[in-house]
Amino acid sequence: MRTNLDFSPLFRSSVGFDRMLNALEAASRAETSDGWPPYDIVKAGENEYRIVMAVAGFSRDDLAMTQEQNMLIVSGQKANGDDVQYLHRGIGSGSFHRRFELADHVRVVRAGLVNGLLIIDLKREIPEEMKPRQIEIQTDQTMPKAETKQIEANQQAA
Fold first, then answer.
1. Alpha-carbon torsion 129, 130, 136, 138, what sign?
2. Number of other CB atoms surrounding residue 48 within 10 Å
3. Omega of the bond leading into 144 within 30 degrees of 0 (cis)
4. How does residue 113 score in pLDDT terms, banded at 50, 70 and 90?
């Protein structure tokens, strides 16, 4: 049973969370896919992730991968060159199109095809200006003296 959630109250009462709320809204109305090709998402470290897709029968030339802002798109298109008559076809060979929503500052480090598995390594690289930094607290002796200026106003009697 699937229920649709209404995120409009969160949009009205929050500032700066648009991307996260849009992602939640998109996930709640996501179309059900056929589940093919199967894939795993693994957390390989504190800021490292790996997507492993089972793409048996696909060559490197049959696969395409694109990262557009925070979206990773993996697609496969098998060349139709076989004149083979199948008695049973259990290995998927149709085209596919998979989308993965990526968090901010996550980028693809490398991708490889090994033994029918497409392995995509991802890494979150937080910019230096966004990382926490230690701020030195100064004492009276090390603080520069602030000059106080007095502003004089000409007062005229009425």
1. positive
2. 14
3. no
4. very high
Q: Which residues, other chains included, contact 89 with Cβ-Cβ below 8 Å and sequence gap of 6+? A: none
In the beta sheet, which residues pair with residue 41?
51
The answer, yes or no, to whether residue 88 has pLDDT greater than 90, is: no
Say which amino acid occupies 21: L
Mode of pairing for the β-strands spanning 71-76 and 48-54: unpaired
Two structure tokens written together for 33: 């896919």
Collapsing DSSP to helix, strand or coil, 153 comes out as coil
DSSP conformation letters of 120-154:
EEEEE---GGGS----PPP-TTTSPPPPP-PPP--
Measured in degrees and rounded to the nearest 5, phi and psi for residue 82 equal: -85, 130
CA 158 remoteness from chain centre: 69
Residue 93 one-letter amino acid: S
Cα–Cα separations (whole angstroms), residue 152 to 113, 147, 156: 77, 16, 13
Which of 95, 88, 101, 119 lies closest to 36 in space, CA to CA?
A: 95
- Which residues lie across from 63 on neighbouring strands? 76
Does this model's pTM top 0.70? My answer is: no
